[in-house]
Every structure is written in C-alpha cells, then in structure tokens.
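Hey, quick one: can you model this chain's 3D structure?
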Amino acid sequence: MSLALTQVSGSNFSYQHHPLDQCLDDLAALGRTGVELWGVAPQLHVPWMSDADARAMRRAAASRGLEIVCFTPEQVMYPVNIASPDPRMRATSVATFRRAAELAVELGAPKLFLTPGRGFESEARESAWRRSIDALGEIAAYAQTLGLECLLEPLQRVESNLVNTAQDAARALEDVGAANLGVALDTVAMAAAGDTVDGYFALLADRVRHVHLIDGTPTGHLAWRDGELPLEGILAALDRHGYSGWMTVELFGDGSYAIDPRPALARSLTAIEAALTASSR
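Sure thing. Here's the predicted structure for all 281 residues.
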C-alpha cells in the first residue's frame, strides 16, 4: 500500500473549547505535519480575523512543523448559506468566502473548503441549485485570482438539500466549470448517502482532492473504532485509485470529544496506522 500515515492531517475540530495553541501542540506531539484549520469562533472566525492574525497563525503552525493544508470556514452552523433565498444572507455569505480566500493566502493554505448551502425545503430544488452554482462560481473565480484551489464537500441530507452524493458533486463541478474546484470526500457523508470510494472515483477521478477520514454509524463523525465504517476497506480503495492527498481526521461526535480532544485523536491515528500496516503485509 502506498498510502501513508504522513498523509493524515489533524485539525482543531473538537478543540473549540480550548486554546488553539493546545491543538497545535497536540498535533505536533502526535507526529502530524499537516493541519486543516476550522474557522470556528472565537479561534479563527473569518469576520474577526485580520491579515496579521492569519500570518501569526501561520507562524505558530510552522514553529511546530505544521503545514496548513486547508482553511475550512464554519458554514453549516453559522448564518452562512450561499444558496439562501434571502439575497442579504446570500450576498453576505459570498463576501465571507471571498474574505476567507484572502485569509487562506495569508495562512499559507493552498485550499479553501466550501459547502453548497441549502434552499428552502418548500421551494423547487433547481432554484436553490442555481443560486448555489452561481455563488460557487463567483467564489472559485475569485480564489483563482489568488492562486487558490477550492474544495466542495457533499453534505448529509440533514445539512443540505443540494449536494449530498457523488453524483450531485459531479453535476455541481460540471455546472460551475471551474478547473480549480475539486471535491472533498467525507467518509461519513459518503456512507450516509450510500456511496463508496470506488463510486466517487468513477465519477470524479482526480477531482477528488481532499478526504475527511472519519468513523460513523454511519453518521456522527466519530473517532475510529467508535463507529462501524470499514476503515481498512476505505484505505484500500483510496490506495487502489492512487489517492495521494491529505486525509483529515474530523472529530465531532456528540460533543464529548471536545472536553478532552487528544485521546480521541490519538485513538484514531493508532487505528489508521494499524490498518495501513495490516494492508501492507
């Protein structure tokens, strides 16, 4: 197997109740060299961050041997929705992502993480779809001028009524038509939609440019071995398709991980390492 533990990045997911330096210290102690930064308040809230704040964050990560591999602004729980039928919310949301793109540059992050938003449940899906596609196109075009790649993540149906499956993601990429827009494969969203790693690559091939590698039942964003997803099979499929990008452990669970995040992250890394070792024999 050519996949390696060095491709597994950590994140401040589940560190929202702790100083961000604690997260960086833990990641370095656990041997990580990459970090995906979640733009959660108060740590990295986009409307509050200055360019100087972002550069300081970049230095703090670098001092611990950490490369910032992706900037992921909060966009599911906050009032950020690029497909909103409310023109004020939609415009503000697009502006938030344009600012996030600028901050990603200052952070030294090559990728900006996007989600599709959602429309009203009572309206025609195609109306919300068009708003999402237009917004994604605007954000991707602005990111392109800054030299950034964007990632679109399919979400669970409870989170979005637009892009939930690999097929939805393939259609969205075709409709947007931006070469710098790829897809983030989230193993929980994938399982919830009934998709597979093979199915993602059959439809999207090298447009799969980031992975959230996380356990679930099939949902929940759990530490590995706290759920029921087939870690060995997922890793084998990623390897079979020659995936060489980053794989972030995205811990949420029921909120209890956030009390003391490091043990759950450590357990996940141990499980991933064991699965990679077993597959290499």
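One thing worth noting: The beta strands are 8-11, 34-39, 67-73, 111-114, 149-152, 181-186, 208-212, 247-248.
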